[in-house]
Design brief:
7 helices, 7-stranded antiparallel β-sheet, about 20% strand, alpha+beta
């Protein structure tokens, strides 16, 4: 897989031994209180603008979007047809399972407050990292790397539309004594959600490009910080 090879080559250039790594993003950063914002030096709270090349690339990709949507619709229709053809008892079981999963996911989401990008405490470690997020790099993504020493975040020094691995540099290091990766759903569901949980109990939610990514698998192999 070309992107995986590029990722490996980039981390090799950075001299980092990686156990797992994936490109991640965060949701929009909420506006902090005025005093917190001023004390942090009025940091950047939004990613940089998409470069002109990125706009051109998006225009060129636009004709393929309906095709992708159509294929996704076909897959959903196929799944619906297969369910309708299943025996009545199986259909009942599948409906109950789906409803149970939705209930369980909502319960976990409500427990953690996963509708938010972080725990809400601007003075906590997660809040402080969030204030520096786009000051370190205006790129909209981070390559999140799990290493034996902890967590490393890397990104290009500016927003790019192509060649993100080529321009990557380390923008933050979080020692294993300070922060760990957690799958809030404990592997029960294939989601893109991960938490960076800090020693002080604060957390930051990130989203991987792919559900149940290598980082999810890595988090599940590690002992739970609550255990």
């Amino acid at each position: 897989m070309a992107s995986r090879r590029k990722q490996h080559n980039s981390t090799a250039r950075l001299g980092i031994h990686v156990e797992a790594g994936e490109w991640c993003a965060i949701d929009a950063i909420p506006r902090p209180p005025a005093d917190v914002y001023a004390a942090a030096g009025n940091p950047r709270l939004r990613p940089g603008r998409v470069p002109a090349l990125g706009v051109i690339s998006a225009v060129l990709r636009a004709p393929f979007i309906p095709v992708a949507l159509f294929l996704g619709l076909l897959a959903a229709m196929e799944d619906s047809v297969m369910r309708s053809l299943a025996p009545k008892g199986e259909r009942t079981r599948l409906r109950a399972k789906s409803a149970g999963e939705r209930t369980r996911r909502k319960a976990v989401s409500d427990e953690y407050g996963l509708d938010r990008v972080f725990d809400g405490n601007w003075h906590g470690d997660a809040g402080q990292l969030l204030l520096d997020w786009y000051g370190h790099s205006p790129h909209h993504q981070r390559l999140l790397l799990a290493t034996p020493e902890g967590i490393v975040l890397a990104a290009p020094p500016r927003r790019v539309s192509v060649g993100r691995e080529k321009h990557m540099r380390v923008v933050a290091r979080l020692p294993v004594t300070d922060a760990v990766l957690v799958d809030p759903f404990a592997g029960e569901f294939a989601t893109t959600t991960l938490l960076i949980r800090f020693r002080d109990g604060s957390w930051l939610r990130v989203k991987t490009e792919e559900p149940r990514s290598a980082l999810h698998m890595h988090a599940l192999r590690r002992p739970s910080p609550d255990g």
